Amino acid sequence: MISRRTAMTYVAMIGTAAIGTLLGTTVGVQAKAGRAASFAAIDSDHDGTLSLDEVKKAAGDLFDELDTDHDGTLTRSELRRRLSARAFAAADTDKDGSLSKDEYLAVVEQLFKAADVDHDGTLSPAEFRFALALRRLIH
Ligand SMILES: [Ca+2]
Ligand SMILES: [Ca+2]
Ligand SMILES: [Ca+2]
């Protein structure tokens, strides 16, 4: 009886963890399969973390996808709502009204550094999960 009760408590705890703030447990990853799949897709060396290079590669691919007129820059309409007007203006360093890939990736790098809360140079699944602004520029 005790073991059954303990098991139920354990299940309840696991359930809480899955919807809580901790990602990276097997249960959490399974509960967020869609999110985990995109993390895995970006993690090209499969080391369980995202390096700046991996994130920039994914962001560069999205840039090309969003650049529907293929002129090598993104206008606000091509970006849709991925950047606020303010963030767009700040990113558009040469003030020509569109973002070059360099300008775009500079924003990605800033957001990557902001998301890397433990400053180890990579994003863990949990760090990535909370990096909402960064994720909008990646997928
Ligand atoms: Ca990696
Ligand atoms: Ca364009
Ligand atoms: Ca980190």
Describe how the helices and strands are arranged.
Blueprint: H1 2-19, H2 26-31, H3 33-42, E1 50-51, H4 52-66, E2 73-74, H5 76-79, H6 85-91, E3 99-100, H7 101-115, E4 122-123, H8 125-130, H9 132-136
Helix pairs in contact: 4-7
This protein binds calcium ion (3 copies).
One calcium ion binds next to strand 1.
In words, what does this structure look like?
The protein has 139 residues and is mostly helical. It folds into two domains: 1-31; 33-136, Recoverin, domain 1, CATH 1.10.238. It is 62% helix and 6% strand. It is built from nine helices and four strands. The protein has a two-stranded antiparallel ribbon. The chain starts with a helix and ends with a helix. It binds calcium ion (3 copies). Residues 67, 69, 71, 73-75, 78 line the site of one calcium ion.
What's the short story on this structure?
By secondary structure, the chain is mainly alpha-helical.
List keywords for this structure.
two-stranded antiparallel ribbon; 9 helices; 4 strands; mainly alpha; 139 residues; Recoverin, domain 1; globular; 2 domains; binds calcium ion
- Total strand segments: 4
Assign the CATH architecture of the largest domain: Orthogonal Bundle
Report, as a whole number of angstroms, the end-to-end distance: 48 Å
Rg calc: 19 Å
**Overall pLDDT confidence:** 84
